[in-house]
Amino acid sequence: MTENKLILTLFGATGDLASRKLYPAIYRLYKNGHLSKHFALIGTGRTKWSHEDMRHTVRQSVAKEVEDATHLEEFLTHMYYLSHDVNDKAHYQNLKAFQAELDQQYQTDGNRIFYISLSPTLFPTITLHLKTEGLITENGYNRLIIEKPFGHDTESAQELQRKLNQAFDEDQIFRIDHYLGKEMVQAIRNIRFDNRLFSDIWNNKGIDHFQISLLEEVGVEDRGEYYDHSGATRDMIQNHALQLLALLAMDAPKDNSAEAIQEEKIKILASLHLPETTEEVKANFVRGQYGPAADFKGYRQEENVASDSNTETYLAAKVEVDLPQWKGVPFFVRTGKRVNSKSTLIDVQFKPTIEGIAGNHLRIEIAPRTGYRLLVNQKVFGYSHDTYSIPFEYYYTDEQLAQTPQDYERLIFECILGDKSHFAHYLEVEHAWKYIDNLFSHWQKIEPEFPNYEAGSKGPKAADDLLAKHHIEWHQ
Ligand code: NAP
């Protein structure tokens, strides 16, 4: 195994995401030998922590992953903390000097990853200071990992990209979308392109429709303030759902390079059909907001949410791709909070060979189970010559999943390798925003009737009606 040499600087080391996701991911990389002697992590935040405080937080955060206490203590010696206000230019000089010292100590050859896990409003401040204060090294690689959201519309995304580009080129920017780190999401390309069974009919000749479901039982929890300005469409559809759609619709890339994959995804996102009239939007998009139920508060009663909020917590959409191979194939997408299921699923409905026989159905199950199921037709067992569908399925076991890299772990590792295959290119982000902006421009003209579904129910009735118009139902 080649040893990776780097200093990872984490902005937002005292935050929620760092302790819930990032420290466990980095520890697993260390545990599995991908990070070792030539590695150091500098955590930063305004909080006045010592290195020991940082190590204490990391120790607690990775507790569930620990198999060897001595190895954990060794890992913790690679963790450092520097109190740093990202708005204070002088602090960058301290950081630069500390990085240089650790670079010497750990022989990291000038390689740097800057991971920004704090409010996106601060991304440009940080990247600009990294550049002007000379923290970008000449002798190694410099990569930037940033968290979502990347803007809140096309204009803000363009502005953010312009500012980031003053310090980092596109090929140095890694936008984390943790869905792209999930096992079954990464498997989509293999399933599609490495099976003759699917590859030749993965178009409007063979496929009737797709369903992409990103469903959550939880409400907004303590994210009310952020969510009330965002809503389901910006929070889930613009990034996660449209990324899944792009993976399902893209042509086979000419090779396995990140550039080739991104190029194909860009083509799809640039070809999303933009509804032209408000009537078209009304007919094909169902917004929802949860109201109170016996066991749950309604959205408008949640903490830090306006009591007359019209933010959508649910969206069901019929998305179309304006390319010849996808003409007439709807991509039905739904996401919702406080619904009666917690699951992330892709359903592919194939066309029947003849009327009266069910078309094949492929379910790619991303969560809670990890695996897939294919319904195939065969003869009813016994004297009958009728046809019925039976499942072929493969689900990973808990033991297998425990050995599989987790989403953040995998994506951080891919960034260390410089592999952008599972990161969205800026143009993907921009095209996705253009699609979403168009929806909002129409929605501005339609007053929603919220709340329109009960917390804990399956979602608004109109979402079922949307599919009923096509004589189908949401797969459960
Ligand atoms: P958080 O808990 O509020 O943490 C914010 C971090 O930013 C803290 O470490 C805070 O440290 C630091 N910070 C704030 N102002 C600073 C300043 N002026 N200088 C230096 N550090 C400063 O936020 P989070 O939930 O971890 O989220 C971080 C990022 O990840 C956000 O972009 C969010 O949108 C994204 N994200 C989070 C989640 C999640 O599940 N949490 C999921 C997806 C995306 P001090 O207070 O010590 O300064």
From TrEMBL:
Binding site for substrate: H178, K182, E216, D235, K337, K342
The protein's name in its UniProt record: Glucose-6-phosphate 1-dehydrogenase
Stretches assigned to the Glucose-6-phosphate dehydrogenase NAD-binding domain: 10-186
Gene assigned in the entry: zwf
Recorded catalytic activity of this chain's protein: D-glucose 6-phosphate + NADP(+) = 6-phospho-D-glucono-1,5-lactone + NADPH + H(+)
Functional pathway: Carbohydrate degradation; pentose phosphate pathway; D-ribulose 5-phosphate from D-glucose 6-phosphate (oxidative stage): step 1/3
GO BP annotations listed: glucose metabolic process; pentose-phosphate shunt, oxidative branch
NCBIfam families: zwf
Enzyme Commission (EC) number: 1.1.1.49
Molecular function as annotated in GO: glucose-6-phosphate dehydrogenase activity; NADP binding
Glucose-6-phosphate dehydrogenase C-terminal domain span: 191-475
Pfam family, one: G6PD_N
HAMAP family assigned to the protein according to its UniProt record, in alphabetical order: G6PD
Keyword vocabulary terms for this entry: Carbohydrate metabolism, Glucose metabolism, NADP, Oxidoreductase
InterPro entries: G6P_DH, G6P_DH_AS, G6P_DH_C, G6P_DH_NAD-bd, NAD(P)-bd_dom_sf
Catalytic EC class: oxidoreductase
Task performed by this protein: Catalyzes the oxidation of glucose 6-phosphate to 6-phosphogluconolactone.
Keyword Metal-binding: no
